[in-house]
């Protein structure tokens, strides 16, 4: 029998301390103050249950279900729960994926192959409202589809079914609608759009990644009586994506793609036997994949059940209503549209308020509200993802009080000014022709140094991005991220004896 040496214990403690030091630069993932990217139920013990479930399946590889049949059982039960909630019938089938982006990618890939094999479409098109998530543009870029974008109405931010119908052609492989759209939290007219796609023999996907689990449970109670139909029960809807690591409150890496039947789903599967190794078959973009997120998702959804999720949805619904009412009383800001779900977009109500300055002021007070650039009919705004952890009356009250102070300070400071000559210069640049020197100069103008470090206040950077054409922003963003993700120096933190300084490449705010 062997025991750990004191030296080994010290080394492990050193490693864990470095991780803890690095986390100090991050925003909190619990407590409801980080209102993007993270989802907190606010329930005691749920994180511990999920961690234990993940640990139990940490070494299980979902690549081969014949070796690990537990994966089949867990996936069938998780997918079955999603199908039962979201309008699935006896023929409905689905796949557990690593997240909303993978679910969306697979929906597009399946539609492309279906259009090719059943309709002979050689140059497939993807019809998207301008509010559709970028994951669909990513899918089109990866899988070679042409994107056809459709505008939304300026006040409701919803797409019109008639405009979608006009955009559909013989080459359309898939039409996408959102429940809700991320930017404004509104549900597209899914029944009307799906009726048009069915009439034209085209597949229709509902992106319910962020809202499906929440809306599906909310509509089971009186508070959800206002919700429009949005799921697989709607005639013409052929697939739907829903994330569990959002309002299912499971750890990251958990989403479900539902299909109307197995015949449609098979067009998205990959199989290969033409090599000397083992036969390969897979329903996702991954090969080797950890079963830990699946086990955690199963454990959390089993623990909460329908009753638990209904109560969490009620809490979120009440918090959203209180926030919308409270924001309406704050001079200088307004809510965009009429949110159907748990997402709120807050814009300036007049020229004196710069929402990006408001974001900086809130960040300095320990809150993260996500800045969104103006695009089309949508003005610059701040995005609030409301989770159950925000639902306590004290948290809502604190948020509204801090927001009122932040808006007042932003109005006092005034909007961030950008030299008009800079906007003219940006409009004249060809993003595809920029060399290294031009990229460096453009980033310097935006306040980003050679090391990619971002300034403490982001309003000036966002203001510059706002006057740049989207294609130029798309050209520059990978350069910024590329500078952040650089290999550490040879004497850097490569092991227990490495540097333990804990310096992070980026520290925003505070």
Automatic annotation (TrEMBL):
**Per its UniProt record, what InterPro entries does this chain match?**
GrpII_AminoAcid_Decarb, PyrdxlP-dep_de-COase, PyrdxlP-dep_Trfase, PyrdxlP-dep_Trfase_major, PyrdxlP-dep_Trfase_small
Q: Which UniProt keywords apply?
A: Aminotransferase, Lyase, Pyridoxal phosphate, Transferase
- Gene Ontology MF term list: transaminase activity
Q: Which cofactor does it need?
A: pyridoxal 5'-phosphate
Listed PANTHER family: PTHR42735, SPHINGOSINE-1-PHOSPHATE LYASE 1
Concerning its family, UniProt says: Belongs to the group II decarboxylase family. Sphingosine-1-phosphate lyase subfamily.
Q: Could you identify this protein by its name?
A: Aminotransferase class V-fold PLP-dependent enzyme
């Amino acid at each position: 029998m062997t025991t750990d040496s004191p030296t080994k214990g010290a080394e492990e403690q050193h490693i864990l301390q470095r991780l803890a030091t690095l986390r100090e630069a991050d925003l909190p993932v619990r407590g409801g103050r980080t209102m993007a990217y993270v989802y907190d139920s606010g329930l005691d013990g749920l994180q511990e249950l999920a961690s234990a479930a993940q640990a139990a399946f940490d070494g299980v590889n979902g690549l081969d279900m014949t070796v690990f049949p537990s994966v089949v059982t867990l996936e069938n039960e998780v997918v079955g729960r999603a199908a039962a909630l979201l309008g699935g019938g006896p023929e409905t089938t689905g796949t557990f994926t690593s997240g909303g982006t993978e679910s969306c990618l697979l929906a597009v890939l399946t539609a492309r192959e279906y259009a090719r094999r059943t309709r002979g479409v050689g140059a497939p098109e993807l019809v998207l409202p301008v509010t559709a998530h970028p994951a669909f543009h990513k899918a089109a870029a990866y899988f070679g589809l042409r994107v056809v974008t459709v505008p939304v109405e300026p006040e409701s931010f919803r797409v019109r079914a008639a405009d979608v119908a006009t955009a559909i052609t013989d080459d359309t492989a898939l039409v996408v609608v959102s429940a809700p759209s991320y930017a404004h939290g509104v549900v597209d007219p899914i029944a009307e759009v799906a009726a048009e796609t069915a009439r034209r023999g085209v597949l229709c996907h509902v992106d319910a990644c962020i809202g499906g689990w929440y809306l599906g449970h909310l509509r089971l109670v009186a508070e959800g009586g206002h919700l429009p139909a949005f799921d697989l029960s709607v005639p013409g809807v052929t697939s739907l994506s829903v994330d569990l690591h959002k309002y299912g409150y499971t750890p990251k890496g958990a989403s479900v793609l539902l299909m109307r039947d197995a015949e449609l789903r098979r067009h998205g599967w990959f199989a290969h036997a033409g090599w000397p190794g083992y036969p390969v078959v897979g329903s996702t973009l991954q090969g080797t994949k950890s079963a830990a997120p699946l086990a955690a998702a199963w454990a959390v959804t089993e623990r909460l059940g329908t009753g638990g999720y209904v109560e969490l949805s009620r809490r979120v619904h009440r918090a959203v209503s209180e926030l919308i009412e409270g924001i309406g009383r704050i001079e200088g800001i307004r809510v965009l549209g009429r949110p159907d779900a748990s997402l709120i977009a807050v814009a300036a109500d007049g020229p004196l308020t710069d929402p990006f300055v408001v974001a900086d002021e809130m960040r300095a007070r320990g809150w993260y509200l996500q800045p969104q650039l103006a695009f089309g009919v949508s003005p610059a705004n701040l995005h609030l993802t409301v989770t159950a952890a925000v639902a306590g009356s004290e948290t809502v009250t604190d948020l509204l009080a801090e927001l009122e102070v932040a808006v007042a300070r932003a109005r006092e400071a005034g909007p961030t000014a950008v030299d008009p000559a800079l906007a003219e210069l940006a409009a004249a640049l060809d993003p595809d022709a920029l060399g290294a020197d031009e990229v460096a100069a453009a980033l310097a103008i935006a306040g980003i140094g050679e090391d990619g470090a971002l300034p403490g206040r982001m309003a000036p950077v966002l203001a510059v991005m706002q006057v740049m054409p989207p294609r130029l922003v798309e050209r520059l963003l990978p350069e910024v991220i590329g500078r952040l993700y650089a290999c550490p120096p040879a004497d850097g933190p490569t092991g227990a004896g490495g540097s333990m300084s804990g310096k992070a490449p980026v520290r925003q705010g505070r």
